Amino acid sequence: MERIRNKQLEDILGKEFPCLDHGFVRLMDYMGSDESIVQAARVSYGKGTKQVHQDRGLIRYLMRHQHTTPFEMVEFKFHCKLPIFVARQWIRHRTASVNEYSLRYSEAQNEFYTPDPDVIRKQSETNRQGRSDEGVPDELQEQALDIFKQHTQQLWNDYQKLEQMEIARELARINLPVSLYTEWYWKINLHNLLHFLKLRLDPTAQYEIRVYAEAIAEIVKIAVPITWEAFEDFMLYAKNFSRAEQEVLKTILAELPSAPDWEAIGKSKGLSSREVTELLEKVALKHEK
After folding, report:
1. How far apart are CA 251 and CA 260, in angstroms?
2. How many whole angstroms separate alpha carbon 238 and alpha carbon 206?
3. Catalytic residue among 42, 200, 210, 243
């Protein structure tokens, strides 16, 4: 069987998608498509899937019911250049194969991340992990930038001195800051990649890693457009309800003076009849036409 190829992806293989001041994401290779997901699901389900006539319907069913294995049939290999502190957040997703640029074997490059002034913020008073949404005065931005630049320049000068002294690279590197850029190859299947994107595209994710997630998302949209649509509908922009919240909804809906036309409302929002039925099952309401 001939390998599935996506012309749009072929056209961007190796293309740099710029991120931050010196970084990028590049798609180096890929395997599979929406069609691959459908093929895998139908092999797994056998005759049961003959009732599903459209690939979109099947993919949406798989996504909303969290049947994840078929999505693992699609893979991506990226080349990423990113600040070390972003890489340390990124590597917490322990679901990919990674090979990183080594400063034991190779010399460091004089490239450090310096944030744009408009993303310099004070510590949030409500989120201990992040910065606030409010801007800071220009004077404070300039002071912070001066500290960033002076610090990295001094540490770079020290690194060069140690190199000139012929101190081993594995020792010379140890004082370099986490703003230094590193590079890696990152290979991951679509299921795990979507989980990564759900977390890192969230507005509460740190700005710097979110920039990379947004670049990767643009590539995934091209690779698997039907899956991306389902991902947005059932994962990225979806909300889960607790058991208590479901009971609240059930009570409110049961007290309405007349039953809404669920089918019409659902179709107006793009839901299939099956999705309308599943919606009502979530709040334990009988589907009455």
Report:
1. 15
2. 21
3. 200
pLDDT value at residue 121: 92
Query: Would the pLDDT of 211 be above 80?
Result: yes
CATH 3.30.1360.170 domain span(s) along the chain: 7-113+179-236
* Mean pLDDT, the chain, integer: 91
pTM score, whole prediction:
0.91
pLDDT computed for residue 44 by the predictor = 62
Query: Can 200 be counted among the known catalytic residues?
Result: yes
Q: What is the DSSP letter of 32?
A: -
Q: Which residues contact 246 (CB under 8 A, 6 or more apart)?
A: 282, 283, 284
Residue 46 scores a pLDDT above 70: no
Q: Which CATH number fits domain 7-113+179-236: 3.40.220.10, 3.20.20.300, 3.30.1360.170, 3.30.465.10?
A: 3.30.1360.170
